[in-house]
Amino acid sequence: METIVNTKPVITDWVKREYLTNVERILDSGRLILGEYTRKFEESVRQYSDSKYAVAISSATAAIEIILKHLDVEGKEVIMPSNTFISPVYAVKNAKGRVVLCDINLEDFNMDLTSLKNAVTPSTKVVLITYIAGRIPDNIFEIKAFCDENDLYLIEDASHAFGATVNGYKAGAIGYAGVFSMYPTKIVTSATGGVITSDDIDLIKYCELSRHHGNENGAVNQVLSGDLLLSEFNALLGYLQVQEAFGMIQVRQEIFSFYQEHLKEVFGEHGLYFQVSSDNATSSFYKIIVMCKSKEQCETFKKHLNACHISTGHCYGTPLHLQPTLLEEYPQASLPNADRFRESHFTLPCHLDLSDGDLKYIVAKCKQAVEHGG
């Protein structure tokens, strides 16, 4: 049988039709950057995230770098969880800041508040939180309050969390600034690209300058920067995807509900559990994480599913403190939860191409894996 993939970008038929219809309009306009669809894309993300402003950019990495340069983190510390992607490290280093790592918790797998507090020094300026797998932590407002009390800027890396909410607040509208990735596998994609959200007009003006060589009116250079633009073709795709976001997220939530209904009890009996959810929060379920009681159980489970042509994935398979490029900087990092998460988790398939039959098959094979000692 054909392997059931873990994740894949799915473009709906409506988006395909609208995209092909409007591509010709872009070509006829002669405006291939910073045109009608860039504005529409930015406005759609702004509205969806309940933010005051939004700026489209070439990537989420570039977005983080621009924000950090605006905040002037040179010589300052930026705290982030070790369980995140490598690109924020690149952004911090380009902004001449220093990365400080903290641990995660083992309930929702987001930043651990106690570890964050222990990591703060007089040199700390920014806290960069990653919303893992589309889940905003319930204690995000405690984290924000701690940042406010200590004059720290809270930046939301909401790359996984487009459309996620907590207590009625949306991802990207809680901290000083939010960043969304529009990479092909994300909830909403523009093929490549990112979006910055914020209520700070000074940051937004800086971002708008920085994405186009720092030139004002095409001539007067205000900020030394590069070409960080999103094309009109990418912006068009992103704009159309945002129109479909509610329905796409709803499908992902239904997939998780199906897994939870049929597997939560049997998982619990054998020490496995899903990422902890909450009545106060809605996840966008970029990924569906299963935590095992041991590395051995995790490997056995994955091996069984893979043998049944079910692809398993991970949510950052190697934490930052164990990345080969960073080992010298963090030779003795003590981040036990990040280490345990690395060894003992996997993700179940979650995308719009999964059929009811696929889901029933996955559930059956998960139960079978448990029976076989998984």
TrEMBL record:
One of its GO terms (molecular function) is pyridoxal phosphate binding. The keyword Zinc does not apply. Keywords: Pyridoxal phosphate. The keyword Thylakoid does not apply. GO terms for biological process: polysaccharide biosynthetic process. The modification N6-(pyridoxal phosphate)lysine is found at residue 186. It holds the Pfam family DegT_DnrJ_EryC1. The active site is at residue 186. InterPro entries: DegT/StrS_aminotransferase, PyrdxlP-dep_Trfase, PyrdxlP-dep_Trfase_major, PyrdxlP-dep_Trfase_small. Belongs to the DegT/DnrJ/EryC1 family. This is DegT/DnrJ/EryC1/StrS family aminotransferase.
